[in-house]
Amino acid sequence: MVDQMTLEEKVGLTGGVSLPNGCSGNIAAIPRLGFPGLCLSDGGQGLRATDAVSGFASGISVGASWNKDLTLNRGAAMAGEFKRKGVNMLLGPVVGPAWSVVRGGRNWEAASADAYLSGVMAAQTVRGIQSVNVMASTKHYIGNEQELHRTPAGETAAVSINIDDKSMHEFFLWPFQDAVKAGSVNIMCSYQQLNQTYACANDKSQNGLLKGELGFRGFVVSDWSALYGGLEYATGGLDMGMPNASRWDKNLVQAVQNGSFAESRVTDMATRIIAAWYQVGQDKGFPRPGIGMPKLVTDSHTVFEGRDPKDRSTILQGAIEGHVLVKNEKHTLPLRNLKTLSIFGYSANTPPKWTAAEDIEGSWTYGKAAVLGLNENQTAIAPLGTLFGGGGSGAITPATSSSPRDALVAKAAEDGFTLYEGLGSNRPSVNPSSDACIVFGNAWSIGRTDRPALQDDYTDTLIRTIASQCARTIVVLHNAGIRTVDGFIDHPNVTALLFAHLPGQQSGEALVSLLWGMSNPSGKLPYTVARSQSDYGALLNPHTQDGKNPQADFSAGIYTDYKYFEKKGIQPRYEFGFGLSYTRYHYSAIRIQGPLGNFHRKWPRGRVVSGGQEDLWESIATVSCTVVNRGPADGAEVAQLYVRIPGTKAKQLRGFSKEFLRVGQSMRVSFVLTRRDLSVWDTGAQRWLLQRGRYKFYVGPSSAKVPLRTTLAI
């Protein structure tokens, strides 16, 4: 097809156009060749800016689920709605930011603060999305770690995120590599500078690392309006500008015609785009681009149903498994034999409204009343409604939703207990006959700005006020990121705490299922909760250097989150991988097989395929253990494998498996370790090195609780 295109047609593929639809971006059709064009739309938690669609659990909830199969199904279910609405590309999943700034405003869109967990979930999401003929756009490449100074403003340049070579390979690039290996046909480059060059024009990162070292054969699209220059962006590896490429379109044609730019590169750009279209199967039977995406949903239009009833169980299960129970004392949960339940807090009700708004991204904004009327300025909480998702380009606009209050009212009617509500009061009094109290709070986050803090005094005070009057106080936090809890957690009457994260449209139904034990909590933290914000050290805040060329140096390497805490000897409040259940699991009988394969080779020798050198993925060892459910309830346990590589100062996640076990059931769980899993990046040789030495392996239910240990000499 590309061979039949004129130069102008090839260039036309490389930049967006404005069309009368609600797509985030459009590529024009080439009717004479049967190419219908492309519709690109947000986002990674569900299709927004349209009607008749669902709201899925957010990235942070995906990470908290630790469920690979559920993540695959979620990707397919989401993408199915995009397809039925005529959207060719789903702008997700997110693996950058990598949570290296704890207060980062967009951390919640990604699965985890750990590169391994984030990479596995991104790969599963990509596979799910593309299994139903929709393109995945893995983003934001690379170093999009803070919202502060992320774009140029006047004479001030965007921040330069400066990442050393070892940190790049072992941490920041890691999940992108997983996504490329999974077949992601698109990568979205980010707004900020990377090592003094804008990311979307960065030859080293795009041509050298992505298209060279990782063997990426798809196309690179800019984040919206991140094309700040002209032909140097095309030379630097960018293939498509969005929402347009006005800085290069006519200039690109002229440059080819006058011999200053090679037409072969234009052909390469066009080929990568058309190849992706063919690769996912959009050349046959795909709906017309943008058919279900009205320009403005409040105008008269034909409604195209995006939802499929069979996906409802996936949406609900995603909400359930994204909850993490971290405290449960005095047999508080599951709830039984209630006569009176009292509920408090601002994060229980459905937000007052959804607002159809026209802005640069054509989005629906989360009802402004729910965020104090501030859509672009950050607030710590959303005080007038529960959080189904976060804000910005990753926001969701579900057709229906179940808030915690809605679900609790229905449960009270079903079971016959009395439900007292003090949701609107700042200092409520508790009915003394209450068998239990639930306090709902949240932690809000939105793109374009970083979070102001990891806690807020208002919510902590509200919780303590209720706890002083109620012997069984359950706290439910809808948190768009890490939320510290030392302002209330040691109160003797705070007997249970659930991190609900951002559950999507089935929030209330999921919560009731967990509170009453119809579902057994199985989520685990995809991040570390510190006792104090200061425990995160230099990782806490975005870099705020003044001047016209702000700089942010990231040289922590792998030592972020739990690896930072282990290296520094800091005891967290709740460790990475932690989560309680209504049952008990026992680990035993660890075994290791290996070394296997070509372990005697220090360096990989294979050819470069999608994902890098092919022998990076060969098996070097297998670790196995037995997990038994010794408790009173059926449940699912996440067995976690950590590795201490010679010369490193902390162990790191290198395998996990979530298995459902009935009461008394045992299961043998295995973890396959690849050359990549056990290697370090050698900056001198510019290759992955499988070191000689003794590797230590740890298996258990969290990063801090690893009862099984073994070693392997290589």
TrEMBL record:
A GO term for molecular function: beta-glucosidase activity
SMART domains, alphabetized: Fn3_like
Catalyzed reactions: Hydrolysis of terminal, non-reducing beta-D-glucosyl residues with release of beta-D-glucose
GO cellular component, one term: extracellular region
UniProt KW Signal keyword: yes
Cellular localization per UniProt: Secreted
GO BP terms, alphabetized: cellulose catabolic process
Pfam families, per database record: Fn3-like, Glyco_hydro_3, Glyco_hydro_3_C
Domain Fibronectin type III-like: 637-703
Pathway given in the UniProt record: Glycan metabolism; cellulose degradation
The protein's Enzyme Commission number: 3.2.1.21
The keyword Secreted belongs to this UniProt entry's keyword annotation: yes
Sorted UniProt keywords: Carbohydrate metabolism, Cellulose degradation, Glycoprotein, Glycosidase, Hydrolase, Polysaccharide degradation, Secreted, Signal
InterPro entries in UniProt: Cellulose_deg_GH3, Fn3-like, GH, Glyco_hydro_3_AS, Glyco_hydro_3_C, Glyco_hydro_3_C_sf, Glyco_hydro_3_N, Glyco_hydro_3_N_sf
Gene3D superfamilies the UniProt entry points to: Glycoside hydrolase family 3 C-terminal domain, Glycoside hydrolase, family 3, N-terminal domain, Immunoglobulins
Entry similarity comment: Belongs to the glycosyl hydrolase 3 family.
Name recorded for this polypeptide: beta-glucosidase
Species of provenance: Claviceps africana
